[in-house]
User: Which sequence fits this backbone?
């Protein structure tokens, strides 16, 4: 038990800072962090304005947009500023691990350098803020977990939200998916007809996803849900071990139930990697329980053993992939293909990083032909950080993890305040729950009342029931006692290692709901080792006030320069997508739909989504060369804002091809060919891109006959056939039919023979 200075003390269970007055800043910071931990796993957050073309026009609630992620990340940054101010006011150390501070500094530098190097600045900046906001959860929460009671309260909130996510997964399997499949089968014929020949691949993919029965909860991908559920299970196990150690059997009923439901939900995610990672977490937890005393006496040896084992595991995976040309199992083989493409990106673009959330812009340039997907995430936090954030970013993140582990190793259980202050559980749960559901309602407030009730009613009852039942303490129905919580440590460390292992081959580290929970688990592990429970020293109220003032100024700038433009852009994009513009050019450029797209482009000048969606609408209505030129001005804007997107050159090729129909000038077709060559360079493994280029070359040869043009067209057609043959892992509906291949072969023969050109193969 640590002794406290005479300048600090407790009155009625409330901590008193050295500077006088209650620890308001620390409590507000703690409340904000609990709010984010409760809400974020229930939101499919995004930093991109992009939307698939087949869902843009649906009249559905917009849901979370980039501004949502920026706001929630800003809440974490605000909590960090308040936590620092609270520590300074009480005379407590702010920096407990210089290794972690250096790591955080490297991450900031890497974010700036990679954003400067990125083509799509909005994605780079918003993605960097999103990830840094997740990482900031670690120091912010570690600084305010000053009593074991707060650790237990954090676990209670995380388990309540975990219960909501797990219940959502079970509900999807039991009701959502069967109902959706039944509706789809009832209308299958009309959907297949709407998809047509060009959309048969997407139609096939959608049908297979319906059949997969993989639960996702509120996340965008089932593997992300699995990563998050690993944390839920292990936090629940930690609470159970803690309760049993203190002799309170009745209090572990709710955590046991939540953990069991979370395991069932993880099974429904159909994630083999998630199951293996959970097993690893349980093994680590078991070793910690069995050999905890040995590790406590030799924390440095345990720390070194962990990092050596992690390095050996990574080296083993890389070595196996290099020696065998791939990894065992189909899913790991695909990941190896993603990582091969990532290596090509690094070799081409260098080690500064291509910008956060920009991997997909470059992957198609180096994508192996046999790779079945055009992914935007390489399915590994190690690879993604190395490609997007560069060597500095990867080194910085590893330093953050090493710093956290060193802090745990250096702390001593004796530093616990074993008579620490209790916490009013009912008040905390009420405040956090009310804030969570009010924000959730607000994010979907453009939906109908029926939709909102359907979305929130079940989570509301599950969350409060889980939080209420999970907070019962021996003799305390409304208070969390301050008994030391070090019994939770093995389960927390196991959960963190399981999450790290799974996200090393998957996507969860960059999903805010999962990532924030991961960093919270690390903060809890540091706290139960006594990481933030030092005795207060001589407070510095003026310095604390300076930190608060700086936090407030930074917050105002953040809202004005980042959140406001993203919010206006999203609002106008949502409006434009729901509108249907006139069919004539003159009416369209004066329509509210065009105005909304223009306003979105003006609101966020670092993003090209509005231009990307507007160009096809303009080209569809263009009736003169001058009107096509106007569309080309938007293509130019898109090229400046998103130069590495392969779609830019396709837009330009389409525009020049349309313009040639009005101008009858072969120069326009030559411009179209050059633009399409750029699209092929951006995606050389795409047979469709080769066929489009061949079609333009055939048109150019028809307008201005030249032997080299015909030869070039034949070469592109041959390349398309060869690439299609190499796409061994791509489903048949995405590949060329036998009739199509025969038609292309006949066209090649005609081109080689110098015969008149057929139109049989002119579009893919």
Assistant:
């Amino acid at each position: 038990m640590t002794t406290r200075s005479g300048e600090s003390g407790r009155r009625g269970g409330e901590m008193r800072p050295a500077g006088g007055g209650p620890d308001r800043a620390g409590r507000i910071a703690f409340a904000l962090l609990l709010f984010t931990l409760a809400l974020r796993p229930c939101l499919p957050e995004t930093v991109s304005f992009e939307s698939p073309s087949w869902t843009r026009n649906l009249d559905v609630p917009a849901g979370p947009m980039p501004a949502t992620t920026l706001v929630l990340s800003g809440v974490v940054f605000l909590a960090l500023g308040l936590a620092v101010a609270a520590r300074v006011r009480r005379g407590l150390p702010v920096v407990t691990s210089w290794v972690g501070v250096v790591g955080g500094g490297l991450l900031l530098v890497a974010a700036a350098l990679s954003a400067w190097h990125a083509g799509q600045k909005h994605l780079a900046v918003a993605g960097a803020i999103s990830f840094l906001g997740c990482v900031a959860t670690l120091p912010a929460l570690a600084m305010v977990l000053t009593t074991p009671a707060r650790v237990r309260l954090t676990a209670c909130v995380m388990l309540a939200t975990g219960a909501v996510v797990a219940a959502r997964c079970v509900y999807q399997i039991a009701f959502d998916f069967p109902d959706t499949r039944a509706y789809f089968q009832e209308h299958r014929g009309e959907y297949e007809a709407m998809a047509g020949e060009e959309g048969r691949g997407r139609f096939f993919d959608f049908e297979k996803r319906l059949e997969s029965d993989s639960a996702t909860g509120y996340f965008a991908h089932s593997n992300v849900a699995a990563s998050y559920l690993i944390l839920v299970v292990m936090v629940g196990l930690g609470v159970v071990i803690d309760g049993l150690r203190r002799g309170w059997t009745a209090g572990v009923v709710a955590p046991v139930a939540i953990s069991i439901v979370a395991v069932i939900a993880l099974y429904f995610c159909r994630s083999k990697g998630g199951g293996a990672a959970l097993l690893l977490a349980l093994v680590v937890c078991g070793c910690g329980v069995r050999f905890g005393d040995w590790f406590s006496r030799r924390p440095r040896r345990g720390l070194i053993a962990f990092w050596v084992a992690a390095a050996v595991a990574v080296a083993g995976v890389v070595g196996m992939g290099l020696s065998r040309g791939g990894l065992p199992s189909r899913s790991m083989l695909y990941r190896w293909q993603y990582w091969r493409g990532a290596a090509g990106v690094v070799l081409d673009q260098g080690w500064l990083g291509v910008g956060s959330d920009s991997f997909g812009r470059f992957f198609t340039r180096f994508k192996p032909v046999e790779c079945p997907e055009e992914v935007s995430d390489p399915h590994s936090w190690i690879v993604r950080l190395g490609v997007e954030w560069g060597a500095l970013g990867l080194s910085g993140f590893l330093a953050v993890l090493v710093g956290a582990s060193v802090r745990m190793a250096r702390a001593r259980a004796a530093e616990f305040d074993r008579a620490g202050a209790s916490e009013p559980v009912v008040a905390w749960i009420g405040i956090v729950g009310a804030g969570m559901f009010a924000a959730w309602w607000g994010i979907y407030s453009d939906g109908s009342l029926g939709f909102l009730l359907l979305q929130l009613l079940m989570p509301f009852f599950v969350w409060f029931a889980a939080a209420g039942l999970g907070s019962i303490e021996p003799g305390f129905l409304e208070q969390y006692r301050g008994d030391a919580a070090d019994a939770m440590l093995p389960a927390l460390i196991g959960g963190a290692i399981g999450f790290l292992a799974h996200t090393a081959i998957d996507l969860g580290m960059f999903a805010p709901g999962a990532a924030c929970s991961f960093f919270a688990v690390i903060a809890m592990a540091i706290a139960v080792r006594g990481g933030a429970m030092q005795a207060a020293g001589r407070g510095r109220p003026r310095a604390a006030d300076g930190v608060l003032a700086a936090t407030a100024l930074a917050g105002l700038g953040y809202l004005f320069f980042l959140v406001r433009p993203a919010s206006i852009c999203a609002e106008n994009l949502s409006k434009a997508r729901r509108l249907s513009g006139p069919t004539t050019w003159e009416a369209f450029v004066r329509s509210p739909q065009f105005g909304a797209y223009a306003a979105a482009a003006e609101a966020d000048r670092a993003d090209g989504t509005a231009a990307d969606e507007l160009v096809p609408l303009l080209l569809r209505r263009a009736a003169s060369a001058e009107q096509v030129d106007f569309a080309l001005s938007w293509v130019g804007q898109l090229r400046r804002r998103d130069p590495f997107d392969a779609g830019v050159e396709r837009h330009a090729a389409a525009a020049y091809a349309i313009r040639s129909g009005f101008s009858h000038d072969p120069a326009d077709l030559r411009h179209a060919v050059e633009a399409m060559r750029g699209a092929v360079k951006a995606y050389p493994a795409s047979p469709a891109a080769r066929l489009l280029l061949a079609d333009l070359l055939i048109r150019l040869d028809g307008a201005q006959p030249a032997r080299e043009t015909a030869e070039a067209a034949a070469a592109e057609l041959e390349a398309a056939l060869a690439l299609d043959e190499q796409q061994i892992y791509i489903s048949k509906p995405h590949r060329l039919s036998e009739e199509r291949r025969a038609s292309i072969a006949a066209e090649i023969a005609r081109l080689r023979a110098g015969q008149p050109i057929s139109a049989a193969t002119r579009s893919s």
Q: What stands out?
A: The mean pLDDT is 89. The beta strands are 9-11, 14-16, 423-424, 479-480. The longest helix spans residues 148-186. The two ends are 74 Å apart (CA to CA).
